[in-house]
Design brief:
Layout (H helix, E strand, L loop, with lengths): L6 H10 L13 H10 L6 E5 L6 H8 L3 E6 L2 H11 L6 E5 L11 E7 L8 H14 E12 L6 E2 L2 E2 L5 H7 L4 E12 L5 E11 L1
This protein binds S-adenosylmethionine.
The site of S-adenosylmethionine (SAM) has 20 residues, from loops.
C-alpha cells in the first residue's frame, strides 16, 4: 500500500463529491485521447488506465471500438461510479480494485495510461516499484503514457502531497526499458475554473 492516501481516503472522496466537485475531472480527456490516437494502436490491443477513477477515458475508448480495456483503481466507489456512467458498456471492461503497488501483471499491455495517479507516490521505493511494474507489464514495442502535475503545477491534490515532475525527471524514473518519444505540457481547467499545469510523457517499451 502506498503511504500517501489510502483506499478509505479515496472511497470517502468519491462517496462525498460529484464529478464536478473534484479538481482533476474533465468531461473529455482530450490530451490523452489525442496521444492515444497518435499511437495507432489496434482495437484489440490491451490497454489499462491506472487510477482511472471517475475518468471518461475508458468510456471514450469503448466508443472508439477498443475491446481489451482495463481500469484499475484503489477505490471501489470510483469504479462503481464509472461503471454506472457507462451503463451496459461497462460489461466490456475489466474492472480491478487494487492499490497499483499490489497489482501483478506480466507482459500484458500494449498501453498503460496514468493521469494523476502516479504522482501520489511520494516514497522513492514505491516510485521504483511502479516503474518496475510498468516495465514488466508493457509488451515490447508498447507504450506508457504518464501524466503528472508539472514543476509549475500544484503541490497537493485531494489534500494529499504529490510529487511534481518535468519530462526530464519522468524520463529518469522510466529510464529502464523505456524510451521517451513525446512530451507535452498542458493546462487543465478544473471544474472550478482554476488552472493546473500538467506534463504528459509518452514512453515506448524498448
Ligand atoms: C486525481 S485522481 C485522477 C483520476 C483519473 N485518472 C483522471 O484523470 O480523471 C487519482 C486517482 O488515482 C487513484 N489512486 C490513488 N492512489 C492509487 C494507488 N496507489 N493505486 C491505485 N489507484 C490509486 C484514486 O482513487 C483516484 O481515482
Amino acid at each position: 500500500m502506498g503511504d500517501n492516501g489510502s483506499k478509505t481516503h479515496w472511497d470517502n472522496v468519491y462517496n462525498t463529491k460529484g464529478d464536478n466537485e473534484v479538481g482533476w475531472y474533465q468531461d473529455t480527456p482530450v490530451t490523452s485521447l489525442q496521444l492515444i490516437e497518435e499511437l495507432r494502436l489496434g482495437l484489440n490491443d490491451s490497454v489499462i488506465d491506472v487510477g482511472g477513477g471517475n475518468s471518461n477515458l475508458i468510456f471514450e475508448l469503448t466508443g472508439l471500438g477498443f475491446s481489451n480495456l482495463t481500469v484499475l483503481d484503489i477505490s471501489s466507489s470510483a469504479l462503481n461510479r464509472t461503471k454506472k456512467k457507462m451503463g451496459s458498456l461497462a460489461s466490456r471492461v475489466t474492472w480491478v480494485v487494487s492499490d497499483i503497488l499490489d497489482y501483478e501483471s506480466y507482459n500484458e499491455y500494449e498501453l498503460i495510461h496514468d493521469r494523476a495517479a502516479f504522482h501520489f507516490l511520494t516514497n522513492p521505493d514505491d516510485v521504483e516499484r511502479y516503474a518496475k511494474w510498468a516495465m514488466d507489464s508493457t509488451k515490447m514495442g508498447g507504450y506508457i503514457i504518464i501524466s503528472t502535475f508539472s514543476l509549475s503545477g500544484p503541490k497537493r491534490c485531494s489534500n494529499l502531497d504529490i510529487v511534481q515532475y518535468s519530462a526530464k525527471s519522468l524520463e529518469k524514473v522510466f529510464r529502464k526499458g523505456f524510451k521517451l518519444v513525446k512530451t507535452m505540457d498542458t493546462v487543465h481547467i478544473t471544474p472550478f475554473n482554476s488552472t493546473q499545469n500538467f506534463v504528459f510523457c509518452v514512453f515506448k517499451r524498448v
